[in-house]
Amino acid sequence: MTNERKKDLIRALKFLLFSVSAGIIQILSFTLLNEVIFVDGGDVGYWLSYLIALILSVVWNFTFNRRFTFKSAANVPIAMLLVFAFYAVFAPLSTLLEWYLCDLQGWNEYLVLAINMIMNFVLEFLYQRFVVFRKTLDTNSLAAKEKADKSASSDIDQGK
To answer: What is the value of pTM for the model shown?
Structure first.
């Protein structure tokens, strides 16, 4: 396995872990909104709960993945704008899927939420890796420190 493939595998695992934490935030906030705040909100309450929970999870996920997964020094407003572009497409389509499957087909709300979260995980990782942070991978101070530490370790191993 090449060094770049190992890095991408580690990135995918980190993205998975941060996405799980974002998923927990999304489920908890969705549940709070759907079951407590918008309990009598009907259809509006459901999709509004979904959108608010999605936004909370996106901000959480973006913040940690930019710093620790992709180690990017990219301009935050531009990177966030690119992520916004992803969600400008994903959010309406996933909201329509939620509405169609739950309201029209009678599927369980939490099953459909899980399906959308899995789709979100896969598509967002690929989009962030190959679009948002493609040219700025491993450019932040954390990546520079790791590179310096690795270089110093290599020098010690070689007896320099």
So the answer is: 0.75
For residue 150, what pLDDT band results from cuts at 50, 70 and 90? confident
Q: What is the CA radius of gyration of the chain?
A: 19
Token couple for 126 = 């690929």
pLDDT over threshold 70, residue 43: no
Measured between alpha carbons, how far is 159 from 155 in angstroms, rounded to an integer? Answer: 6
So what's the pLDDT on residue 40? Answer: 72
Q: Which long-range contacts (CB under 8 A, 24 or more apart) does 10-18 make?
A: 11/69, 11/70, 11/129, 12/125, 14/65, 14/68, 14/69, 15/65, 15/69, 15/121, 15/125, 15/128, 16/121, 18/60, 18/61, 18/64, 18/65, 18/68, 18/69
Who contacts 114 (Cβ-Cβ below 8 Å, separation ≥6)? none
